[in-house]
UniProtKB/TrEMBL annotation, chains A, B:
Source species: Coprococcus intestinihominis
PANTHER family in alphabetical order: GLYCOLATE OXIDASE SUBUNIT GLCD
Pfam families noted in UniProt: FAD-oxidase_C, FAD_binding_4
Species lineage: Bacteria, Bacillati, Bacillota, Clostridia, Lachnospirales
PROSITE patterns: FAD_PCMH (PS51387)
Protein's UniProt name: FAD-binding oxidoreductase
Cofactor(s) needed for function: FAD
InterPro entries tied to this protein: FAD-bd_oxidored_4_C, FAD-bd_PCMH, FAD-bd_PCMH-like_sf, FAD-bd_PCMH_sub2, FAD-linked_Oxase-like_C, FAD-linked_OxidoTrans_Type4, Oxid_FAD_bind_N, Vanillyl_alc_oxidase_C-sub2
Record keywords, A-Z: FAD, Flavoprotein, Oxidoreductase
Gene3D superfamilies: 3.30.465.10, 3.30.70.2740, Vanillyl-alcohol Oxidase, Chain A, domain 4
Record-annotated FAD-binding PCMH-type domain positions: 32-210
Amino acid sequence: MKEALLSIIKDENRIITGPIDPQYLSDNLGRKKGTAEAVVFPVSTEEISGVMRYAWKNNLPVTPRGAGMNLVGSTVPSGHGIVLDVSLMNHVLELDEETFTATVEPGVVLEDFQAYVESKGLFYPPDPGEKKATIGGNISTNAGGMRAVKYGVTRDYVMGLELVLADGTVVMAGSKNRKDTSGLDLKEIVIGSEGTLAVITKCILKLIPKPEDSLSVLLSFDSLKAGIESVRQIIQANLNPTAMEFIERKVIQLGEDYLKMSFPEPEASAYVLTTLDGSRNEINDHLEGLRKVAKESGALSILPLEDKEEAARVWKIRGMLVKGVEAVSEQEPLDIVVPINQIDAFVNFVNAFEKECGMRMISFGHAGDGNVHLCVVRGDRDDETWEKELDANLTVLYDKAYALGGLASGEHGIGLSKQKYLLKASKPENIALMKRVKAAFDEKNILNAGISYNV
Amino acid sequence: MKEALLSIIKDENRIITGPIDPQYLSDNLGRKKGTAEAVVFPVSTEEISGVMRYAWKNNLPVTPRGAGMNLVGSTVPSGHGIVLDVSLMNHVLELDEETFTATVEPGVVLEDFQAYVESKGLFYPPDPGEKKATIGGNISTNAGGMRAVKYGVTRDYVMGLELVLADGTVVMAGSKNRKDTSGLDLKEIVIGSEGTLAVITKCILKLIPKPEDSLSVLLSFDSLKAGIESVRQIIQANLNPTAMEFIERKVIQLGEDYLKMSFPEPEASAYVLTTLDGSRNEINDHLEGLRKVAKESGALSILPLEDKEEAARVWKIRGMLVKGVEAVSEQEPLDIVVPINQIDAFVNFVNAFEKECGMRMISFGHAGDGNVHLCVVRGDRDDETWEKELDANLTVLYDKAYALGGLASGEHGIGLSKQKYLLKASKPENIALMKRVKAAFDEKNILNAGISYNV
């Protein structure tokens, strides 16, 4: 294989065969370990096309990866195949200020890209928690994040994708045009497909002007139910916040302990942490609206975090919740999504189930879009007990989510980790149709062959 | 066939066999005429599934239609098949104010739906010109319209679709969840697929709260170029208008003559007609921003249309441009889209080409998203001359659009009318992939079999 790859990637420093560093055989959690014969680091569409032609001809599995920040085993290879690492393809190819678009390679890191466009007075709204993920990875999971409630998810900012199909064919799907009803919109089915349909080699992204200012506002409540009800009122009042996070007091303590920082309003039971953005006038206008909602919804307090340092501290505690959990124990990170009126019912169920099953569960998340982040905590269980109890408890949690009209994943994807639960909850006709679409792109099933609807 | 259909649709008043009214064999223009053996008017998913199972078994072409308002021959049947008219499925099944969603049947008429949700303090932003089209039709063409610049297109408001596949299988794709990375997002490839992949039988739509107020503002310029440049500045200044329409003075005259109404600022060469919406404070804030842009971009004038009657009159003239053209002559309506910085180049090309080829061409459209509506006017040409010259001229126009990075259709779809031009401009690998995706949904190619990428 080495010689064949060397005839395509003409630089032996960009090919690994023989012993492979485990980081290329796993995801960001590192629990699942896969196998591969080679890792390649292409620098162009042509090289990727060459690798795919070779793999296609020889029926070799190919697993694309960017920074490998995923949490669900979507970059865990299997068999004697090739790991296709696009992290060297990390260039912004064009910033077109006349059409408000950027054309980038898939390996561009999200936080680098955000900083770059903001330095030009522009803004790329998708903002998932993991800033070191790549744009290609974000597109492959249709990454969401905190700003989704106002600005939408990654899908809403993808205007075009250059794709290399499993057989090496290069297809440009989409363009710099803001409307498109010119045949099937092929890029739309690739977004969120977790590397199973094609390798993304170029991305045309939509940008917007950078908002003038922003202000975070913390609302405190005596129950999560009251907090969630206020979210509906905030939406109805057209206050259009950038973020609306719900956090229970018992969860905040974890972040406080981890960071040795204190969160405001410690006597509350639950918080809704929002951000307003826009011109100063708009922010003031919407802050007034928030005060009205706070009053009507019986909030204990409303605290505009005008001090930027205090705002940063509050968001840091929110941002570090997962790390706070992980400082204590291994955990399984879930990203269940439910309709926005079912958040309270779901979190209450989790709280009751936690007591019943004896496994610690920490939930918080994006109240504006029903996306509940749930850390299921291992504690001091041995391997076998953890695996067995975790599976049993996840089955209960996913069953409940689906019973409430929810889904297994709002933004992490399905990967290997949630395959079983997705398949259990999905109708056979949906899975059959997904398989046929997969075959339309990759008849030999060589791209990320182990994933979910593929099997 | 009648007996078989009667065993599925148990009401002979909802089946036509024998002589078929030509309206069911054409589109809204009525120029292309198709053939069919029967028209059915199902009232349920079950009936549609039954009709599809019958058609699948007997290899009969099926052409779905709603109100038949399309302009591109996407409801023109062929062969001895079935026209499947969903216009009786016109019920709003649920308005869920807690999740800000509505679940509707595909035959619900857009203007009825808009009025209904607005009466509840909610808002459905997609607003294509043709208000008598159905929601199912809007989804099938991913309809855009004037508000797309701020609110996006139909795709952005489709959360879930119940589909009947060509073989009669019922698939629910999507849900009331606001984020979804749970397997391939099947609904996304169906949106804009012009009835070729599946029959839409139920639609879960996203709603937003109704904006408090709106204000239209007319900017006048001494050239189209200056007007288009102001559009970029309006976007960059984050003024977020709902609509941004460009119209040349020579085009406005048509509407004035047709309606016997006068448009303001008659000495200008070009206009940008915008609407601001939101709270009164937001509108005032953005109006101030517009004044600044108007000054910087050398606008001749800026006219806030505070008088609702005057605003209505101005929009009526804009809305009646196509009718104004049609009062004089038959015309071919195009909806070419180009990147937003190419509008001026494209319209200038059209103006020069009009003189060169001697066929009248009227262009106006959505400046915020590059969607140029172009009426190509027949005049007194006889059938043969019109057909020949139109084809030659369309070839030139589409070639130019593609050369500028544009596309054949921004919102009308491809249908039968633009098939030739789409195929000419598309790479064979894109068309091949579209055909494979089509086959994944409809291996026998019975659904809207004549359309574009199908053939």
